[in-house]
Design brief:
Chain lengths: ~130, ~130, ~130, ~130
């Protein structure tokens, strides 16, 4: 609860009907970075490095787990994993802001593209790359 | 346009007032995977590997660019970069689904945590890690 | 055979008794880069990015394989994997050259450090990180 | 000095004239893993994950440094960086052992291949990928 309020304090006000969770994160990250004078470090290149490092830290939690075990995380593991996922999302939103990319739009377009690359009849039950189907 | 319609066709219907873009992606990814019988491959561990690989493919586009140049992508570069960002988001949403993590909530909590780790007075203008501040 | 000769042609001559395979690679990479005027791009930071990307390309070959399957590569898979491993080694040797690091020496020191972090009696049969042993 | 001796103690004896530093590391790693019963975890897939994570930890040291600064590491930074490089080499040697790959041979072959992909006249002064030359 207390956390929620702190988050709200960071947030720019949005009316409920127009609330967009990624735009909200974008605004908070802009403010966060501006307050700390961090824009000087946030080239898309540096942010992409950071994103890649966070993705690797996420992977580290699964490094020695068997596949099935990776679905059965303890509460402590799940919390640690969710924080790394948060970091990945935050850097992704930040890069999208810097490059003026609409993440939801490109993700939906990519899904369409993937559906064409991996037609059900060919891809069903196969983990092959589309170039090998 | 045509793409939009295809995307809508993949989508589960949501009334406008409750539309949540990440939940919408989650549903589309569930359907995508179910149709192709891919859940057998989608352990959190394997998905984290995929996320890390996509983050690396995103980084590859910036590999040899000077920092400033990375802000000035050509339209073709920007399109290619945005597709890799889409892949990162799609895998992230998929892992969140498998682990039952609310991405927006954990991202907001992480922002609060980061604000405590990097207080403005200490972090201003510095790229040091919080452990070195 | 023909390849071997080409490799030799790139190489600086070394007498058999002093041949050090990593120093030999270092010299070839220096020459390779000098001929192409690539030293301008080869900051340690950029080389570390490249190394990370190559490591990710190596991982990509194992992405959807079950653990046991990853030991049973086809000849074509093994060749592709070995080329990615070569890329990792080449970038590693190049960074070591730029930072004047003796790879063999630091690897041997790290092995000693690891032996202290993971004493046999504690680490036997466990995949836990040393901080959790 | 003491470290050197410990390292030697781990090593299988080799006569000076046949000493190969990577084979020596391979033997030490085999022994290290056997003593700890770690071969059960060391599938090529898991080792490739580990290599990728270590490469990312190496990159982390350069994350916020300007290109030129990355050539001017402090002694403490250089030590930390060299340990990550050691980890990368150790995992690479371990994967090579598991897949029976001769790292030096494949690296030399890859250098020849790269020389063909990037002919001097086309690649000079350019950071473009060979597919774009």
């Amino acid at each position: 609860m207390a956390q929620r309020e702190q988050v709200q304090a960071l947030s720019t006000p949005t009316s409920p009907e127009t609330y967009d969770p990624l735009l909200d994160l974008r605004e908070k990250l802009r403010q966060f970075s501006a307050e700390r004078d961090w824009d000087q470090f946030h080239s898309p290149k540096n942010l992409a490095i950071s994103l890649s490092i966070e993705a690797s830290e996420l992977l580290e939690h699964f490094q020695w787990l068997a596949d099935e075990r990776s679905s059965e995380l303890s509460p402590a593991e799940r919390l640690a994993v969710s924080k790394e996922m948060a970091d990945v999302l935050l850097y992704l939103v930040r890069i999208a802001d810097k490059l003026n990319v609409d993440l939801i739009q490109v993700a939906n377009s990519k899904l369409v593209e993937n559906a064409q690359k991996y037609p059900v009849e060919k891809a069903k039950g196969s983990s092959k790359k589309y170039t090998d189907l």
